[in-house]
Structures are given as structure tokens and as C-alpha cells.
Design brief:
CATH class: Alpha Beta
Radius of gyration: 16 Å
Structural class: alpha+beta
CATH superfamily: Replication Fork Single-Stranded Dna Binding Protein
Number of helices: 4
Number of strands: 8
Strand content: 25-35%
Shape: globular
Order of helices and strands: HEEEEEEHEEHH
Distance between the termini: 18 Å
Largest sheet: 8 strands, mixed
Length: 188
């Protein structure tokens, strides 16, 4: 499975008990716990009316009207959503715009870090409009990730394994990611 190299990501930027978490409109405070696992999804149509067809399979030919979008999946500890305490370990899919912003933090003198988990929380601001609707704000203070969260992460299924299972299932049906308040487990 491919991971993103956050040391060069800003140069590349152009976009169990574990649920997927969709970043809602408003503010989401979270801690990135793992490296980003690169996932490519085939889409049909033009934004904002495009729809996902499934994960890109090895050797798959992209047809007219289709495109491939790259995202990164991580395990994250979600602490707060729009002022409401959440405190849950989730799989979060992030687009290239968010990953690029995190990469810039990694290289910033004040916020630089080497390893995951990140040493501070970030707040993702989602305006809900347009391709550039996401921005991130880093916490001003580094804090430790609790032993309980790290233990939960240790027990969680590795993202590479989850993605392999999804890809092995094939693209018979479009990929659907549950909303954050959905009680469905990983879709396989």
C-alpha cells in the first residue's frame, strides 16, 4: 500500500469499532494518528455532480467522462465536531487539499513534526462550498495522545488491510462512505 511522503506533499499538491468519518460542514477537531494511505477512486461526471464508481483497480482503463481522484485515509481521534464532544477513533478520508495543508505544517518551523501521531490537534474548517472549502488550523500546544487512544489504535484494523479487502471485493457497486453519525461498520 502506498503512503504519502509529507516531506514532499506540498510540492505534489494540485486535491472492530471503526467507522468512516465524513468531515461535516463547520469545525472538526481531530488528531492525525497514522500516516496517510493513498487511495484512488474512479469518478464519473463533472464536479459538483460527479459520483464515485469505486476504487481504481490495477490495469483498469479510465473511460471518457471518468476521472481518478486521489485521497488519503488515516486513523484519527475525533475530539469535537461543531462544539460537540465526540472522543472517538475513526477512519477519515482526506482530499489532497487537506493533506497538502498538513504537509506544509510538517515543514513549518513552528509546527514541524517527524512521526505520527501528530504532536498536536488540528481543526478542519469546512465551509461546505466549492473545491477549496477546507482549511486547517493547528493547535498552539503539543499534547500527548492518551494511552487509551493508542491502545485502541493498536487494536484497529490497519488501513492497508481494509483497503485491500475493499479492492478485492471489486467494483460491482459504487463505494459509499457512511456519514459520521451512521452506525455502520467498514463496508465489507
Amino acid at each position: 500500500m502506498t503512503t504519502f511522503d509529507l516531506n514532499t506533499m506540498d510540492k505534489e499538491s494540485e486535491s472492530t469499532g471503526s467507522d468512516f468519518f465524513k468531515i461535516p460542514e463547520g469545525k472538526t477537531r481531530l488528531r492525525v494518528l497514522t500516516d496517510f494511505t493513498k487511495v484512488q477512486t474512479v469518478w464519473e461526471g463533472e464536479y459538483p455532480n460527479s459520483k464515485p464508481l469505486g476504487h481504481l483497480q490495477e490495469g483498469q482503463v479510465i473511460k471518457d467522462g471518468q476521472s481518478v481522484k486521489t485521497s488519503g485515509w488515516i486513523w484519527a481521534y475525533i475530539s469535537e465536531v461543531n462544539g460537540k464532544e465526540v472522543n472517538d477513533l475513526k477512519i477519515v478520508q482526506m482530499g489532497i487539499s487537506i493533506i497538502g495543508q498538513i504537509a506544509k505544517l510538517k515543514q513549518d518551523e513552528e509546527y514541524s513534526f517527524e512521526d505520527m501521531p501528530m504532536p498536536f490537534d488540528i481543526t478542519i474548517n469546512n465551509t461546505g462550498e466549492g473545491a477549496n472549502r477546507y482549511s486547517i488550523t493547528p493547535a498552539r500546544k503539543n499534547t500527548e495522545v492518551s494511552a487509551e487512544v493508542l491502545a485502541d489504535l493498536e487494536e484497529a484494523t490497519p488501513l492497508a488491510e481494509i483497503i485491500e479487502k475493499i479492492q478485492a471485493k471489486g467494483n460491482e457497486t459504487p463505494v459509499e462512505y457512511p456519514e459520521s453519525d451512521d452506525d455502520k461498520k467498514v463496508p465489507f
